[in-house]
């Protein structure tokens, strides 16, 4: 087998694509997509249905050829050295498959055999994997009798049979109840602590915000924005904001606040329950927050509440996407 050329991309990234394109006839599912997943990251690949997430993942896992562009996993180009890519990844698709006549341990044993794990090593490996995903008490159960959440955890255990460096997971929490979603999130965090790089697609923004170190927001096959979670939030929301609620003297409060160094803008908001509210945009650290509160109280302005606004991932997502679904 001819070795593929080493990746020309930065060594700190374990997954990389450059101008990746996938077309299905006239439909462009992936449109010159460039992404970078740092080694050791929990990377949330976020976008609406039809954004090109699954097509990208199928290319990265060597299940589908791109129309053009390049993709590397752990330095191996997916089109030139697919076997090397398969050795370093564990892939969990968005469907489980049908295994009606297999017990849980038999299911893992089957996939371990597919990965050429020696038969003598499989019993201990199966025991360890079932313990990791909290299914030890289910080893003799039939796979088709498991709940959806248990099946997801079992499928995740399957992807770990050959101890891959990278986990590529397509909507791992889709269709799960809240408890099962929390269990999957906790398991992904644990796997990250074990040194795995995790790349997963999702449209559940709360899950992404809870555990991800990095995100990529994709829409209509194009990368809209990517980076660490903090970087993305800072790019879109460069200024901090606070809401000041007053009983009266809103105009005086606005004038006082605008006189503080670091305050950019003060915007009146609609009255709420006969109270005056101001949105204050400012640069800087908590010292400016303290200065604002001190200035208002020192002038005898009746303040009811002072609260900094937090910008969650949902706010970020709505700010950068345009609702360009392909379905």
Please render the helix and strand layout as text.
Layout: E1 13-24, E2 27-38, E3 42-46, H1 53-60, E4 68-73, E5 76-77, H2 82-88, E6 89-92, H3 104-114, H4 122-132, H5 148-159, E7 166-170, H6 178-193, E8 197-202, H7 205-211, E9 214-219, E10 222-228, H8 229-236, E11 240-246, H9 250-258, E12 263-272, E13 275-282, H10 286-298, E14 303-309, H11 313-320
Parallel strand pairs: 3-8, 3-9, 6-7, 7-8
Antiparallel strand pairs: 1-2, 1-4, 4-5, 9-10, 11-13, 11-14, 12-13
Characterization of the model:
A six-stranded mixed beta sheet has the order 6-7-8-3-9-10, sandwiched between helices. The relative contact order is 0.14. The model is unreliable at 1-10 (pLDDT under 50). With 327 residues, the chain is an alpha/beta fold. It contains eleven helices and 14 strands.
Structure class: alpha/beta
Q: What Rg is obtained from the alpha carbons, in whole angstroms?
A: 25 Å
**Number of alpha- plus pi-helical segments:** 11
The H/E string reads EEEHEEHEHHHEHEHEEHEHEEHEH
Helix content: 25-40%
Sequence stretches where pLDDT stays below 50 over 5 or more residues: 1-10
User: Could you give the distance between the termini?
Assistant: 40 Å
Main sheet, how many strands, which sense, barrel? 6 strands, mixed
The average pLDDT is 89
Widest sheet: strand order? Answer: 6-7-8-3-9-10
Q: Tell me the number of strands.
A: 14
Q: Tell me, what's the shape?
A: elongated
- How much of the sequence is in beta strands? 25-35%
